[in-house]
Design a protein that fits this description.
single chain; Serine Threonine Protein Phosphatase 5, Tetratricopeptide repeat; about 5% strand
Amino acid sequence: MGVFIGVLGPVAAWDAAGSAIALKGPRHREVLARLVAARGRVVPVELLAADLWEDPPEGAIGSIRTFVGALRRALEPDRPPRTPPSLIVTVGTGYALRAEAEAVDAWRFERAVEARGRPSALLAGLDAALALWRGPAYSDFARASWAEPERARLAELRSRAVERRAQALLELGRAAEAVPDLDAHTRAHPWREESWRLLALAFYRAGRQADALAVLRRARRALAEEFGLDPGPGLRDLETDILRQAARLDAPGDAASRVWASAAAAHDRAAPGAGPRLEATVGLMRGLAVTGADGLVAAREHRAAAVEAAEELGDAELTARVIGAYDVPAIWTRADDPVQVAGVVAAAERALAGLPDDTAPGVRARLLATVGLESRGTGSPRARAAALEAERIARGLDDPALLAFALNARFMQSFETTGLSGRRDGIGAEIAALAVRHGMPTYEVLGRLIGLQSAAAVGDFARADRHAALLDGLAERHDRPLVTVFTTWYRALRLAESPGVPFEEKEAAVYAASGLLDSAGMPGLSEGLPALAVLALRHGHAPEPADPEDFGPYRPWALPVLLLAAGRRDEAALALREAPDPPHDLLAEALWTLLARAALELDDVAALHRAHAALRPAAGELAGAASGLLSLGPVAVVLADLEVAPGF
């Protein structure tokens, strides 16, 4: 966004760096303000003249054209001579402002007020929108007749924003935080019954029933004394409900909290033993793992503790049920806590060895699926065999959840060579179909993510876009915030592979996606990814030295390229010789491509052959795009470069 125009306060404009743009005199600012108020519609020059002057002087139209010319030079200073303007355009005998909604504070504000979504997202959006206000709208043209309707409309939108923000806080269980702004708003706008209602409800949910009733009395008095009105049904019904302490006034989580406490107590009375408690705990962890970053971290920790506690009881079948019940779908091929999951895999293997012969096949299949799923990225033949055996057993049982779990393990073990996105696409499609058929939304998310990755791998962005849109819908409908991390990263990849997009815009998209990683609770995904993604934007050609430590677990494969960029050729050659084969995971093609690029620069024949053999199965893919996160360009191009290298 090159220019930002502000009318929520004095009319002003800023450039991309945030510096104020000189708009010359008040008439120039008024022309710009009038075009903003038209919201993209054409304003005939005769109407502009009538709006700027009560009695337009001779030459008014010529003056307006002069004002518009000056505005165009100020707002588009880098526009080449004799090229048409793109911001203030001429249409017939008038002018229109052709700006993006995000480039005008009033337009951005209106879009935020009308937005829909989860309360947390709405609250963040409304906070940002309300922060755009620097004073009354069009404050330097308060007496202009053309501005009056727009000022009134924006003032109404601002009141709605305050009320929607308060409603979001109430839905999030943060009633006390809503009180100060609502109190000020009702005093400034005593005719707004919705503000009074929200303020009374906020007091009530904050445990201040007397204050809630006092607010309603104050509202009744203000409406009667200032407007001669009685309170409407909304306020009257709320007063009755407060006096009755009606359950419908509770915050959304209050009733759930009561049910939770009651159910937990009933469970402890009916099944007080350690085994049932451990199995119930794992059930809670499954739900917790998909709620967001904090929930995911807590779920991992409690799951490991539950497995350890089950083993201490010495019951292999109980341990198997505790391990196998945690069938949380997994999409990323690098563990968040390798030590922790290694402990779970070891416990699963011990449980498998200790199970009686007559153990239900489903219990055994869940242990095998756990071994296959949690041994991700290792290339272990045992893990691959466990995943296949889990799938075989699951297909013989009428248990769709078990089959989805086993297929997830198959997905994690589908990286024995590069270029297997087609195989994974089939797995993802089966998981998604199974999930839709049996109402398993979390597994539908998994299947769609696999489909997105597989489509991106072969550059089928139209199909990947469809998966991304479906995923955003699933995330919204089923409250799966972590899904947004992957769809945002995919769109950064999509932009990176779009021709004609400036590098700075691509880089900005990567940095925006990187901002979601800090709170995602997925170190297996986030560590080193931003640095690798920026390097991928240049298809592995480092333009300048970078800190190898920023690459985290990807350091061994990025290091030769980084050292070459720093002019340290001998060290780069050593780093290339010492680099191990990349892990068998979603970024294998990307890491092999980095090694190939370094081998080409260093004329390392052995490394050339090594990289060529590894990348050849992926000749039809984009290097790294199977991750759905980044791309280093077509593998075919890398292979062609390798094949014409001296000594190949």
